[in-house]
Amino acid sequence: MAVPTFVDRVTLHVEAGRGGHGVASVHREKFKPLGGPDGGNGGPGGSVILRVEPDVSTLIDYHHSPKRKAPNGAGGAGDHRNGAHGADMILGVPDGTVVTDMQGNVLADMIGVGAELVIAQGGRGGLGNAALASAKRKAPGFALLGEEGESIEIGLELKVVADIGLVGYPSAGKSSLIASISRARPKIANYPFTTLVPNLGVVRAGDTVITVADVPGLIEGAADGRGLGHDFLRHIERCAALVHVIDTASIEPGRNPIDDLAAMENELARYGGLEDRPRLVALNKIDVPDGSDIADMVIEELREAGHRVFPISAVSGAGTKELIYAMAEIVKESRVEKPKVAPTRIVLRPWAIDGGADFEVVRSPEGWRVRGEKPMRWVRQTDFSNEEAVGYLADRLTRLGVEAELLRQGAEEGDAVLIGTEANSVVFDFKPSIESGAEMLGRRGEDERLRDERPSAHRRREIAEAMDERDESETRADVARRLDREMRPGVGPMSYVIGSEDDPDWNESDTTK
Ligand SMILES: Nc1nc2c(ncn2[C@@H]2O[C@H](COP(=O)(O)OP(=O)(O)OP(=O)(O)O)[C@@H](O)[C@H]2O)c(=O)[nH]1
Ligand SMILES: [Mg+2]
């Protein structure tokens, strides 16, 4: 089998980047071993974004590599350096791509060049300890973890966006017609099912520009899977009108324009949903003498039955102008009725942002289950190997009112409290009102030097003292610079990661306790 060049249905697994972790770091200068927290934040992970691109006409790329992951955010660093953002991953899709979840629910119908869908949001970066410092917690010895990026499996299905769809038996001349009236150059041959994938052509009729889709041929029983089946009819679902291309010169027994038209209508009816679309009938191949005779024979009957009929020749071009103008008229009318969606740069989010209460507490056999966007996010951000970080989580939950709600519902000390998804939750022992931040602070929080005097205050005092003995010509800035030179020769500010070997307070026994 030939290698496919057009694919209109794929399953794609996308994963956004994880956010970088924040870092717990302390600023250090030579004579100021504890300058304050300076750990930077992690960068957010890249999101995965689907975007309608004008030059993409197939989903083939995703057929070849059906897994895509956006880059992670970088971790924060000392000296207030934030981690780099993970770049967003933009996945180009053709106009008319329908995005579904694996249950088949439509998440978005992507129409119009530039339409965007953030399909997987990058994880937030974790805050570094500098950003976590507060009046109560001046030098946090922990940082928040970056969060996982969202990941989701989706279905992409292309439904071509065109104004007019050409339908007809194989070899009726659909591809020949589109080649004759537009610059599209589909394959044309005298064997059935030459066309295996839809072709789009742009047709001009005066000042109206319309797009025409040529789809594979239909045969009787297509709805039962005969021929190419009728799956590809999805590519004419969006069309404002259909043009029946009927072969007047067919030599196959049992074929004639009247029966052909009835057979096509029958298949369209079995596919369903296209009943309301206006139809035009093109009797093709009138350049062939037999074809012209047959066209003359049936044209009145078809018109009497209410059809708008156009005898044409895709090869000679006869009659195609009238057909084009009739197509344009219908399209113009439908555009007036249903004006084109103007804003193309819509950013859609498939998941509603939690709008209700911040959390809820429900009793389950395993214990008290806390549900809610915030508590779950906070748990994900918590480094459970760090007691102070766990204390910070407890504080946040208390401030949100989780503890009060647990007490109100009758939770008792020692009860299990679960936060997270059913499959993956963190279990706590309920211990009401003990873990307020100040008490939780470990060794680092006890460092009173930081409390008495912030580094800037200390420096101001140093400078003020030196000002009394300065040379006449020295300004305050000169004094400050001289002090820096004298007191910190050759040593610029630096920082160390808490718990690392550079941490002056670090020793083995602490980390193993
Ligand atoms: N003489 C004549 N031949 C035509 C005309 N239109 C198409 N043909 C011929 O009919 C054959 C089939 O034409 P295609 O355009 O490939 O037909 P199709 O409807 O696209 O067929 P499938 O893609 O197989 O469904 C080719 O040999 C064409 O050259 C016409 O107006 N006059
Ligand atoms: Mg064709």
From TrEMBL:
Signal peptide: none
Annotated Obg domain residues: 4-161
Region ranges (Disordered): 63-87, 441-513
CDD domains according to UniProt: Obg
Listed InterPro entries: G_OBG, GTP-bd, GTP-bd_Obg/CgtA, GTP-bd_prot_GTP1/OBG_C_sf, GTP1-OBG_CS, GTP1_OBG_dom, GTP1_OBG_dom_sf, OBG_GTPase
Listed Pfam families: DUF1967 (PF09269), GTP1_OBG (PF01018), MMR_HSR1 (PF01926)
Transmembrane feature ranges: none
Binding site for Mg(2+): 175, 195
Keyword Hydrolase: yes
Domain OBG-type G: 162-332
All copies of domain OCT, residue ranges: 351-432
Keyword GTP-binding: yes
Subcellular location: Cytoplasm
Residues reported to bind GTP: 168-175, 193-197, 214-217, 284-287, 313-315
Primary role: An essential GTPase which binds GTP, GDP and possibly (p)ppGpp with moderate affinity, with high nucleotide exchange rates and a fairly low GTP hydrolysis rate. Plays a role in control of the cell cycle, stress response, ribosome biogenesis and in those bacteria that undergo differentiation, in morphogenesis control.
Quaternary structure annotation from Swiss-Prot or TrEMBL: Monomer.
Protein name: GTPase Obg
